[in-house]
């Protein structure tokens, strides 16, 4: 197995590995030798970059500089992983995030930000956010809660850093029994915190555990996002063979969706024409119950008709009123063999109006055009944009649907015989599930007045997409571009929401909203766990002008211990 180790570039362009390894190690560490000696013994190399240091008091007193530094490393590390995954993801490359001390905080955040399929494991020593006895935590100090976890802890005994342990990735986090940073012991001695791997036996053991993590990296997880597909099917008399083909392909439709989406829902609408009965109705609302969908398909009966055009627009508007998931890949598939009224009698719907509704530009109509599913968003509400696809067994319908599908990011699939229905549906599903699915995450702890990162790196199928961030979910986009992460400073404590809209080059979009709990800096437990100067015999001095050589400055970049009365 090939292994590479790299860190994100900061201020200057850095040479990237020429080849793509099966597993690449990204290191978040301090200026010391702590992580270096473990990695060196494991037989891998490191790509170095520099960062400014923070003072030791900024960590032990819980000052904002620590949070700002971690967010800086999180931002750079996440963007580096995104760039590297775009280069090597197709080759199956995944990443082990390794860190010491403050570097573990950055590694944890990045592991939560990106899709789990990118991560082969997390390796760390001296984790300040350690949870006693949690998965992957080992060493003599494994039964202690880290200093940072104590600081960001909640009254119910949980901490904002805890969701990390729920990630479906291998974790190895080692803590010395007398390390005050990860074990949370009130000791003035930082030697154990910087002494990981100093003893040859321990160094060899930790190096082997890192090597084991690399060699035992599990197969990549699939990375599909959710998908919502609504079908609008013409059930006039001439559709009999096409209905039979659609019902016969129900199982292959379900299989195709399950293979391409982690959470797929399907729904069904039938339409005919105005006059002589209901022009359109919802047969099956969006559901994960594929058996109900198949039953609905098999229950369709071709009847009436005998003339054209049909109430195609009304059928599509009925389907567009479904309870769409804004974070899912979405598609509306129309199957018909007759052209549409344009404008439509009774409803007055036109192709232009339908297009604007599907694009989310215009709201769902009221009045005679307001047939919707009972769980849908309601009259006057703008739905999330929905690409429209047409399986058209009629040249006039193909021509009419062309501008609509192009404007919404869908496509037309002309079909000549019922035998083409099954294959065409699968082709539509394969295309529709390439649309982006937005994923947004805020930092575990957000402090008022301190820069934080909003990460869209968890978005699926977003390689060529634009990321638009609304920091306070007020409907106005605050930042937009190709970067999947954005930094923002919330000025005051309180609860708010942030929103992300991911849009690909075809105009297909997805949204994600996340709660952001902004805490006041004085809400943190700022008590220094070390004995005071009157009870201890050590003082601590942080060196100045020392740069971090790896992504993510260490919590104490260079600390000297000086006994009183000695020079």
TrEMBL record:
<dbReference type="GO" id="GO:0005975">
    <property type="term" value="P:carbohydrate metabolic process"/>
</dbReference>
<feature type="transmembrane region" description="Helical">
    <location>
        <begin position="538"/>
        <end position="559"/>
    </location>
</feature>
<feature type="domain" description="VWFA">
    <location>
        <begin position="228"/>
        <end position="429"/>
    </location>
</feature>
<dbReference type="GO" id="GO:0016787">
    <property type="term" value="F:hydrolase activity"/>
</dbReference>
<keyword id="KW-0472">Membrane</keyword>
<dbReference type="InterPro" id="IPR035986">
    <property type="entry name" value="PKD_dom_sf"/>
</dbReference>
<dbReference type="InterPro" id="IPR036465">
    <property type="entry name" value="vWFA_dom_sf"/>
</dbReference>
<dbReference type="InterPro" id="IPR056861">
    <property type="entry name" value="HMCN1-like_VWA"/>
</dbReference>
<dbReference type="InterPro" id="IPR000675">
    <property type="entry name" value="Cutinase/axe"/>
</dbReference>
<keyword id="KW-0964">Secreted</keyword>
<keyword id="KW-0812">Transmembrane</keyword>
<dbReference type="InterPro" id="IPR013783">
    <property type="entry name" value="Ig-like_fold"/>
</dbReference>
<feature type="region of interest" description="Disordered">
    <location>
        <begin position="133"/>
        <end position="160"/>
    </location>
</feature>
<keyword id="KW-0732">Signal</keyword>
<dbReference type="Pfam" id="PF18911">
    <property type="entry name" value="PKD_4"/>
</dbReference>
<dbReference type="InterPro" id="IPR000601">
    <property type="entry name" value="PKD_dom"/>
</dbReference>
<feature type="domain" description="PKD">
    <location>
        <begin position="435"/>
        <end position="525"/>
    </location>
</feature>
<dbReference type="InterPro" id="IPR052969">
    <property type="entry name" value="Thr-specific_kinase-like"/>
</dbReference>
<dbReference type="Pfam" id="PF25106">
    <property type="entry name" value="VWA_4"/>
</dbReference>
<dbReference type="InterPro" id="IPR002035">
    <property type="entry name" value="VWF_A"/>
</dbReference>
<keyword id="KW-0378">Hydrolase</keyword>
<dbReference type="InterPro" id="IPR029058">
    <property type="entry name" value="AB_hydrolase_fold"/>
</dbReference>
<protein>
    <submittedName>
        <fullName>von Willebrand factor type A domain-containing protein</fullName>
    </submittedName>
</protein>
<keyword id="KW-1133">Transmembrane helix</keyword>
